[in-house]
Design goal:
Aspartate Aminotransferase, domain 1, 16 helices, three-stranded antiparallel beta sheet
């Protein structure tokens, strides 16, 4: 069971009902303390830290992450967020006029914009395949998605867990299909590490990016890009720096190009081993399972309260620690602000296309009482305002 001791490990304000872990995560105390220790060490001797000891810590961190994700450490590079990873890969694809990148209409806005930018720049086309809601099964999803594949499809890009809908997509099946057609795959797994066991070697995506600062609970600006060895030399650095034509090259041009970026605070990257140790200490697979059960158990009553239908089956196949409820409102910003300012609830109200979703996230510090507070607030808003239809 989730204990008071575990809830006390987080720094979240006690006067806020925090149901938005999915946006930026939050550090538990041991991880945040380690973060500050690294920053202090850097300020006490910046030269040695940035040039030598910090690089040793970084290697140790990548090795820990590689073990956690079942991937060779040298196939991983740290970046500050998945948007950087998408930019890095997209600008190196060498797309030609007529080429197509296939994605869905439910991708994260920043990544969708990056893909659109580079496709337009190269004269290629970004295909946003429509996946109508509700999704009834994995087979239903795949049937709709593969209709977007053509002879010109060069890469498939897909969320593993989507931001606005909170849904788990069947990426394993999509990757297998793409492999059979000789199409590259790039998976945006921003929400996956720490929420769902991830075996990158087994998954087999050509490119995979994930955030450590969300469900793995590391400091902000800590993410990774995993690239299969056969594609690593195709990736140009986002910033050309000391790793290009290095006078002291390492064994890996991939690491030199993307890790050696000059002066920056990379302390957040170094906290991955502490975050993994924290999860191990609390048997995080069980903690996450309890969170998933709480997430799904509350879905039906919120759907009933808001008079809407589920966008996918409320099952392990689609729903983990995020749940998005379709919402009838033409004032999403005003509704989000009211929930925070009047009721002290941090929860996103997310427009996506012509739809709006109220998305709650459940982490170890959340209890049924938090969801009851949200329920009562929505009930009050429905009674006293016209913000919810």
């Amino acid at each position: 069971m989730i204990t008071d001791q575990l809830r006390s490990e987080f720094l979240i304000r006690k006067d806020i009902t925090f149901l938005n872990f999915g946006s930026f995560g939050a550090c538990p105390r041991p991880v945040f303390d380690r973060y500050q220790q690294y920053q202090l060490e850097m300020e006490q001797e910046p030269v040695q830290f940035i040039v030598k000891t910090g690089m040793e810590y970084l290697k140790r961190s990548r090795e820990a992450l590689g073990k956690y994700l079942n991937a060779p450490a040298d196939d991983l590079v740290y970046l500050i967020n998945p948007s950087h990873a998408v930019n890095l890969v997209a600008r190196s694809l060498d797309l030609k006029p007529g080429d197509e990148v296939l994605t869905t209409e439910w991708e994260y806005g920043a990544c969708d914009r990056a893909l659109d930018f580079y496709c337009r720049k190269d004269g290629a086309t970004l295909i946003r395949q429509q996946i109508p809601l509700p999704i009834t099964s994995k087979e239903n999803f795949i049937d709709h998605f593969v209709k977007g594949v053509t002879a010109n499809t060069k890469m498939i890009f897909m969320n593993h867990i989507t931001s606005s809908t909170g849904m788990l997509f069947p990426v394993e099946e999509v990757i297998a299909y793409a492999r059979s057609k000789g199409i590259m795959t790039f998976i945006d797994g921003a929400h996956v590490p720490g929420q769902l066991p991830l075996d990158l070697s087994k998954l087999g995506a050509d490119f995979y990016t994930g955030a450590c600062h969300k469900w793995m609970m590391t400091p902000k600006g800590s993410s990774f890009l995993h690239v299969k060895p056969e594609y690593q030399d195709r990736l140009d650095p986002l910033v050309v720096s000391w790793g290009y034509n290095s006078t002291t090259p390492s064994h890996s041009r991939f690491l030199d190009y993307h890790q050696t970026q000059g002066t920056r605070d990379f302390s957040a990257f170094l906290c991955i081993p502490e975050a993994i140790a924290f999860m191990d200490r609390y048997n995080w697979h069980e903690v996450a399972q309890e969170c998933r059960e709480l997430t799904r158990a509350n879905a039906p009553r919120f759907l009933e309260l808001l008079g809407t239908e589920p966008i996918a089956p409320i099952s392990e196949d689609f729903i983990l620690q995020l749940y998005s409820i379709p919402l009838r409102t033409n004032q999403p910003v005003a509704l989000k602000d009211l929930l925070f300012e009047k009721y002290g609830i941090e929860v996103p109200v997310m427009p996506h296309g012509d739809k709006v979703f109220l998305r709650y996230s459940i982490q170890a510090f959340n209890t049924q009482a938090d969801l009851d507070i949200l329920y009562d607030a929505i009930l009050d808003i429905k009674r006293t305002t016209d913000l919810i239809g």
